[in-house]
Protein: CorA-like transporter domain-containing protein
Amino acid sequence: MRAFTWRGRSETVSTADQKSDLPSRNHYKAIRPLLQSPAFIASHEKSDIRLYDTVPQPEPVVFSDSDVFRTHISSTPKPQTRIVSICCRSSLDPLSITESAMRKLTDTYDIDDSFIDHALLFGDKPRTSDSGHGGMTIREREDGAFDMHYRFTYSEGYQVRLEGPTKFTYRQVCVFHRYNPLGTGNLWIFLHARPYSELQTRLEREIATAPSDGVPNWFSLHLLVFATYIGNWRWCLRNLGERIEEAADIALTMDLSNPKVVSNTESLSLLLHPQNLVSAITPFSCQIGVTLTTIRKMAEANDLFLSKGLITDKQHQKLADETASYISNLEGYMKSVETLEKKVKGYSDLVRLIPANNEKLATTLTLNNQARMLQLTDASVEDNTNVFVVTMVTLVYLPSSFVSAFLGMNLFDFDAPEDRDFAASKKFWIFFAATLPLTCLTLGFWYFLSKHRKRARMQFNQVS
Structure:
């Protein structure tokens, strides 16, 4: 046994696993410092791995412990078809499998590191910077098998309240497939963004009803993924279009000649809301475009397999029809995205141009800014007034307070003997000895704070 330490966390790996773990381990070690959040869980007892080693299989074998899963795939022979499904606890949580278990799986099947790059994107929400990545890649192995994998980003609707409006969020699913035309060593890996996803439900139903000789066609589970999620883009784009039109209609029908309307914060937000939707539309074309690339790659693989005699004409025609339909739908979604982008851009340009060409609107928008400034000014004046009152009261009572405190000290005797009406103590110097240093200390502290604030303000102005 020997221990590896990565970013402050140590993990013990058996000597028998060192050789098989080495390729992916080196890749993980290189990628890890670049990750903002972990892609895999740290505790092996919080796993959610579902395994299908026979087809059909009514229920999956569920592993809640990654170490048990590692032992299973290490000690059992590879079945004709193995399907592994791994879920996250939520769409923002890491995959419910440990790094060591994932390494064992990928090294046992000699899976390319490019699929691992897809897996490392879990543990966080899909980022705009990754929108253009994840298209299908296909590689032919020396034994005649084909490895293909891709990351599929999809939209999914949800409701915060039962009767509330439908909102859409964006999630991802990763798929790996090893297709062996000889019928042995086939492997599927599905990485889901959340447990009990719609794809997981359909997948279990498909496997439970599959024929005894395995999955019907090499492409059947790929089509299952597309059939589950591609149609969601239509409703997501429709929802976004409705939001744009609603905000634009409200903003364009405002009586901007009325200063009360323009000075209303809610009215101003409605006027500028469509411009804020630009950031939401921007990644759509890339995300849908990547899916379109994946579908076209499947169509190319379909032609390749037919030319090699690996599939029948009937299977080829079935997939050709399906991919043609999806390509047509995705191209339509791309055009819808372009239309929405043009509409939002046109409206944004209109909002910028109207103040320049319409003196009344320019005046009302200026009034809005002036109204806000007046509110701030009124608040500032009110605060200054309060400070002034407190200062005046303090100044009025300060002399009397000082006189009463000074004469109330034990340094004076107003009923002194020897016919003297007033006498001062010989220890009168104590008053000045205590007062003068405290006064100098207070003024020095005030001077230091004033200089410090002035220096900080100058540095801020230079930076800005």
About this structure: DSSP finds 14 helices and eleven strands in the chain. Residues 1-23 have pLDDT under 50 and may be disordered.
